[in-house]
Amino acid sequence: MSVILRVGAGIAALILGYLVLGFIADHWAWFASVAILLGGTTLAGWFLFRSRGHEHRDRALTAERHALMRDVDRMNIPDFDVMIGRLLVGLDAKRVKKFGHRKNDLGCNYVVTFSNGKRIIVRAKKDDRAMRSRNGNRHVQILGGEIKPRWDCDAGVLITNANLHWMHHASRNEAVAAQLGVLIVDRIRLAEWIETGEAPVELRPVRAAIPASSATAVQ
C-alpha cells in the first residue's frame, strides 16, 4: 500500500510540475516582470543600506575632525607652529629647516628638502579670523611671489586651520594657487593629516608632486 502511495505521489508531483511549467510558459511575461521588479527592489534596498552606512561613518568622521580642529583653534601660535613642524618632520624628508616668523603676520616659515633634491617653502599660518574672508588670497599671492626669489624653492605650501574653500572663495584661491605653484592645505586637509598621520599626496616623499610655479618653470 505504501508503494502505491509513493508512486501516486510521484505521479501527482509530475502532473503538478507539468501544469506549473505550462502556466509559467503561458504567462512568462508576467513572471519576468515580477522577477525584475523584485530584483530591482532588492538591489535598490541594498544600495540604500550601504549608502546610509557610508553616510553614518562620514558624519561620525566629520564630527571627530571638527572636534580635533576646535582643539587646534584653541592653540596659541607657538604651539601651532610646533605642531606643523612635527607634521613636516613626519614627511621623512631629507631636511626640514625652520626660519620662524619675520616680524609680520605672514606666519612661520619652513624649508623642506626632499631626497630627490626638490625644495618647498612651507608657511604655517594660524587663522587670525581674517584668513577665510579677506586675507587667504593675499597670503597665497605673497607666498607664491617668494618661492624662487626669496627662498630658492620649487614650490610653496600654505598650511592653515582656516577654511579657504568656502563659497566663492574656493575657486579663486585655487586658481591663484595653481598659477603660482602653491599647494593649499587648509582646514579639511589639515584635519585629515593630523588624524590619519598621512600627508596630502602632493607632499609624500615618493612623489613630492607639487606643480612648480610659473616663475620657476621658465628658469
From TrEMBL:
Query: Where in this chain does the record put each Restriction endonuclease type IV Mrr domain?
Result: 73-194
Q: Where are the transmembrane segments?
A: 7-24, 30-49
Q: Which domain of life is it from?
A: Bacteria
What InterPro entries would the database entry show? Restrct_endonuc_IV_Mrr (IPR007560)
List GO molecular-function terms, semicolon-separated. DNA binding; endonuclease activity
Q: Does the keyword Membrane apply?
A: yes
Is Amino-acid biosynthesis one of the keywords?
no
Q: Give the keywords, sorted.
A: Endonuclease, Hydrolase, Membrane, Nuclease, Transmembrane, Transmembrane helix
| Annotated GO biological process | DNA restriction-modification system
Official protein name in the record: Restriction endonuclease
| Originating organism | Glycomyces harbinensis
Q: What is the lineage of its organism?
A: Bacteria, Bacillati, Actinomycetota, Actinomycetes, Glycomycetales
